């Protein structure tokens, strides 16, 4: 005997779709995968910021070295007690006059990726190696103001 759709009454009609149990299992698996992905994403973001910090520190330290080299070659005059280091980071950005032209050593003071600010811990040649405040005589070195710890266990402020 055929029903109105041309099928036998004894044939089973298969239904497509998902059961509630299947849906719960799939949602559980997706939640588990998302939970595992969050720490990996945070780690990757931190690693990217660390790379940016290293690049910024290298750029500023290179600019400080270029300034010192130019001063020691006699391209411009510096204060006697400066040891030919720049007086501040702004001098590297604003530049110095060399033979009637302005020589700049840094395009801009980079933003510290760890603090989000363009402020850095500075150390002058006269400061102790472990000093936490800047003596303001010159800029011998630069560090992050972040108190955070890097993925390798070191403090960002010691980089």
Can you walk through the features of this model?
The chain has 159 residues and is mostly helical. The chain has one domain. It has helices at residues 20-72, 89-94; strands spanning 96-98, 101-103, 121-123, 141-143.
Brief sketch in words of this structure:
The chain is mainly α and 159 residues long. The chain has two helices and four strands, in the order H-H-E-E-E-E. It has one domain.
Short descriptors:
single chain; about 160 residues; two-stranded antiparallel ribbon; about 35% helix; mainly alpha
| Number of separate structural domains | 1
* Largest β-sheet summary: 2 strands, antiparallel
Distance between the termini: 85 Å
Number of strands: 4
Number of helices: 2
Give the strand order of the largest sheet, numbering strands 1, 2, ... along the chain.
1-2
pLDDT averaged over residues: 88
Runs in which pLDDT lies below 50 for 5 or more consecutive residues are: none
Helix vs. strand class: mainly alpha
SSE run: HHEEEE
Strand content: 5-15%
Could you say which overall geometry the principal axes of the C-alpha atoms support?
Answer: elongated
What is the fold's blueprint, element by element?
Elements: H1 20-72, H2 89-94, E1 96-98, E2 101-103, E3 121-123, E4 141-143
Antiparallel strand pairs: 1-2, 3-4
């Amino acid at each position: 005997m055929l029903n109105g759709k041309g099928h036998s009454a004894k044939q089973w009609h298969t239904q497509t779709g998902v059961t509630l149990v299947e849906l719960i299992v799939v949602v559980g698996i997706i939640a588990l995968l998302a939970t595992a992905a969050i720490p990996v994403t945070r780690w990757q973001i931190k690693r990217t910021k660390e790379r940016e910090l290293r690049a910024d520190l290298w750029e500023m330290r290179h600019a400080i070295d270029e300034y010192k080299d130019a001063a020691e070659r006699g391209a411009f005059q510096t204060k006697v007690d400066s040891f030919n280091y720049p007086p501040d980071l702004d001098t590297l950005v604003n530049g110095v006059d060399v033979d009637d032209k302005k020589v700049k050593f840094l395009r801009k003071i980079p933003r510290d990726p760890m603090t989000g600010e363009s402020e850095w811990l500075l150390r002058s040649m006269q400061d102790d190696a472990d000093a936490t405040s800047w003596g303001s005589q010159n800029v011998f070195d630069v560090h992050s103001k972040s108190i955070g710890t890097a993925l390798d266990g070191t403090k960002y402020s010691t980089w």
